Amino acid sequence: MKQQTYCQSHQGFAHQFIILNQGQAKLACGECIYQLQDNTNKVDFGQIISIQKALTSPDSLIQKLTAQDKFSNLFQNLGNLTGDELKQELENFESSLRQLQILIDQVIARAKMQVDLIIETRINIKNDLIQKIKYPQFVKLLEELGNSQQDGQIDIYKQIEQKLSQHLNEINQGDTNGLNGYLDEILSQYKNKLQEQLKNNYQIDNLKIQIDQCLLQYQNLFSKIKRTYMLGFLEGSKSTVVSEEYFQDLIKIITDKNPKMIINQAKLIFQGTKDGFNQNSFWNKINGKSNLLMIFKTKKDVVFGSYSPCKWESNINSYVEDITCSSFIFSYKDQQIYLYPLKEQRKKYAIYCSIGYGPTFGSGFDIQIGPNFQQGQCKLGQTYNVEQQNFNPNQFFGSQQPQIVECEIFELQQ
């Protein structure tokens, strides 16, 4: 502010904050905030606006005035969007399109040349044959034959008729197979010439390659635009286990593994505390569904989970392959996400489906949750990769058994 105001309760301290309380705004200094912290009442920092931040960025003020968790990721994304990366992607796409246009023009020019060559070849073959059969002399003899008959000149008519016979016989003289042999010869010459001109059609192959590259660039650009701008607008049920920011981080990990996947909704289809911790409730809710994000919380407050695009089917009693190899298991500790991605060579064991089991992942199993969600096992590293040093699978749940106190399963819809 050009002109600062000062706190009346704490002399010499400038107002730095605005406290919102039941629709009323009150200016406060740093000492006021410290006093609030010292009081037994819990301070709601979501209702405290930094004057400096509000004056620096309207986004900060807007975020405070719409202080709901579901908006936090939206404002974070909007704040991070400089547009430079998308502009660079667009410039690359535009450059590829212009190069493609050059190649298209070259292909069109070559096609025109080839068509002209074929037309010219047909004309040349016809002219060669006309010359071979001495067509003008043939026409002249026919005209003379007609005139002599009309004038009643029988002797001349017979002479011309004889000349016509000689003319036609001469056409086949001097060639091994006569006119047919000559025709075969010139057709072979022109055929070789055409083949030479038409065989180097590499431009068509290059055109196809560049078109595919441009389409791929456009798909990537479109996906990046939509994923970047829509991430904050993701519809779905709010998780009670993890924060909105953590949930959005998981969604981003999934979309990074599946660039063509645009998630529009995360629909909560199973919640253990509501639907029941047993395999029947579990399978009733998820059977036949795919693209499931599962989040678990144990009795020891350990948070872990998984994602797989595979379809869960209760009656197959078998492993399900993830051809995309995008399945992963995760854990959350010390404000950090630890990923355990599916091994490429073990992707046919991504998940295990059986009516007698709860959520089960990997061969052997990497993670297995029993039918009552209390028993189970962790043998991470067999099908899902573990990069952490000194990793102890026996402590993955915080104890020997999972003892799940909450399980949320979200169906990610495109």
UniProtKB/TrEMBL annotation:
One protein family per Pfam: TLD
Coiled-coil stretches noted in the UniProt entry, renumbered to this chain: 83-110
Stretches assigned to the TLDc domain: 240-413
PANTHER family, per database record: GTPASE-ACTIVATING PROTEIN SKYWALKER, NUCLEOLAR PROTEIN 7/ESTROGEN RECEPTOR COACTIVATOR-RELATED
InterPro entries in alphabetical order: TLDc_dom
Keywords: Coiled coil
Identification of the protein by name: TLDc domain-containing protein
Domain of life: Eukaryota
